[in-house]
Amino acid sequence: MYQHVLALAFAVKEINEIPKLLPNITLGFHILNGYYIAMMTYKATLNLLCTQYRFVPNFTCDSHKKLIALIGGYVTETSSIIANIVSIYNIPQLTYGSFSPAHGDRTVFPFLYQMVPNEDYQYRGVVQLLHHFGWTWIGLLAVDDDYGDRFLQVMVPLLTQNNICYAFILRTPKRTYVDEYLNFLLRHLEDYPVLMDRKVNACFVNGEPPSWQNLRMLLFYAPLFSLPPVGKVWIATSQWEFESLSVQRLWDIQNFHGAISFTVHSNQPLGFQNFIDTVKPSWANRDGFIQLFWEQAFSCSLKFSSLNVDSKKFCTREEKLESLPRTFFEINMIGHSYNVYNAVYAVAHALHAMHISSSKHRLLGERLKFQIVQPWTFHHFLRKIFFNNSVGDTVRFDKNQELLAGFDVTNWVTFPNNSFVRVKVGRLDPQAPPGKELALNDDQIEWHRSFNQVLPLSVCNDYCYPGYSRKKKEGERFCCYDCDPCPEGMISDQKDMDACMKCPEDHYANRDQNQCIPRLLSYLSYKEPLGIILTILTISLSFIATLVLGIFKNHKETPIVKANNQTLTYVLLIFLLLCFLCSLLFIGQPGKVTCILQQMTFGIVFSVVLSTVLAKTITVVLAFMATKPGSGMRKWVGKRLTNSLVLSGSFIQVGICMVWLITSPPFPDKDMNSLKEEIIVECNEGSASMFYCVLGYMGFLAIVSFTVAFFARKLPDSFNEAKFITFSMLIFCSVWLSFVPTYLSSKGKYVVAVEIFSILSSGGGLLGSIFLPKCYILILRPELNSKEHLIRR
After folding, report:
1. Number of folded domains that form the chain
2. Across residues 202-231, what is the average pLDDT?
């Protein structure tokens, strides 16, 4: 591009006008064109090595004109050809385009400096860009040459490693002669249908020339063969430039609207625009490019000839560069021109550093002669340059002699008049922390008009949305898959997950299986209706038991209270009260202490109650047997027997509980499996066998009491509690027999509710059956509470 020439001339002009940089030294330059042809590039390079315009390779006939450094080329092939020659002479070469050797061997070019960071950074940046937009099914385009081969050798494995697939690889013709080139291109029109795949909306193009011209020509000729236009997001590397040949002046570029490329970072040096305004056909005496460029750009002739009077207009020489379409000339300095500008300054600063170093060692009065500086002595200073250019950007090389810089992510916005605008929409910084190299501003991106400014999809099939996971299709690439719903209890919370994941134990999967929801702790609480009802019932029965105890205490001197063994009655009422109150231990969130107290207290207190009932029953039987003449049972009737029965019956249960406490005590536990949406907070019995031993012993006491009472139920009423005890034991046994299957079939808080209900109902049965008839007499029928009435009965 002609702007590269102008950038070089502008940089040299600026440096020569800065007296402090190279005092008493004037930089010069010589430019030759290789025309992207290997033979011409070799010849141009050899011409640079010769002096006085004599083509005599490897021979210097003028000691005052030395080549100190070489800037070029724009593409890898040109740079490699130049490096093969100038490296023999150890001449520094600064390449201003990307440099990616066909065989990947960078070490054979020790005197080459890259003004563009390593191309591999761009490849990794493209992968991050594809991930950013979720594009996993893309097309690859590369020129059909060694450099295209290397591009595919690097890119294909990199895509696979990052879970991205290519749907096709399209190889475009390499640069050659026009007649062969057109034949190659027409042959490649047969591959055009692959671009029509609607699933592939993103195509990565290796920007190495002539990829842009190839693609542009392919899309231009397609309608001529009745092939439909394609709307794609073209992604390209930094060599991609919208430069046009003169024959392409009127070719539409709307197919490339919304393209994204990684462009060399550039800035606008002060004065460059004014410099551009001075460029005219006669602006420099020895500019060998201006005439050809001017005539092609403005479609006019600078030289009058009878042969072109009808075909071309005559140039006025006052044409303005700013009036040209941007596909011919861009007014703002582009990235590669900016690299040329920085390369010239790098050479100047290296020369300045060499001058400073030499001045410290030369003799007083001796003058350093830059004209006879040997090129190989220049490398030491060029490697270590570190300066800020005129716009404040830092210029320095890394250990691989590559410029430490980043790339701009550029969005190409085209217009119907064949003009375009470069919009910077992001930044690729190779020095950034891993994973944060690419920064994008999605809102600024213009997509191809066929997408109606909606983010395009470029996937083999639609995404597997949350709640589903990917399932591989047999015989298909890994980017093509089916979507399976997650199994029960598992979720996927992102698109395209390879497998569903299980929720943590304290969470459960929602109905859509795309989110884990915290499970609530489930226990019988004082705040919920069931807990409130059971608490009220407990307090009510406790109040009744206390009231009955008070009634019996107030009537302790009456015959009916004395006849029912006053001590046993008090013990029974007190422990019935404790039975009711112990049910409160089962309400609320279980703790370590409450879990131990629940079953232990319940077992011991109920054992005392049942032992007391048994003692009352046996006392009634012995009392009637002792009334018979000559009976020896009279000695057994008394407090010693009843106390022994109550204590022995209770201590056995205490012993069972102590063994339980020592071997495997109850503890608070969480049941994660019984309910899907809740975690049951419960008391684990520790040892189920010990729990059933406690219940079994209580059952044994109840059966013995029931049996004794049943056989004594026909004794005279006035002295007989047996039938009331029989009825109470019948209620007690019925409750606890039904408790076992209900307890085993319940879950969560309802297990506790069943046990509380059994405690309250069995205790209430004992209280009601044994004491309510007596309270009825004590309060409502006091006339029946007399010794005469009892004797008469």
Report:
1. 4
2. 84
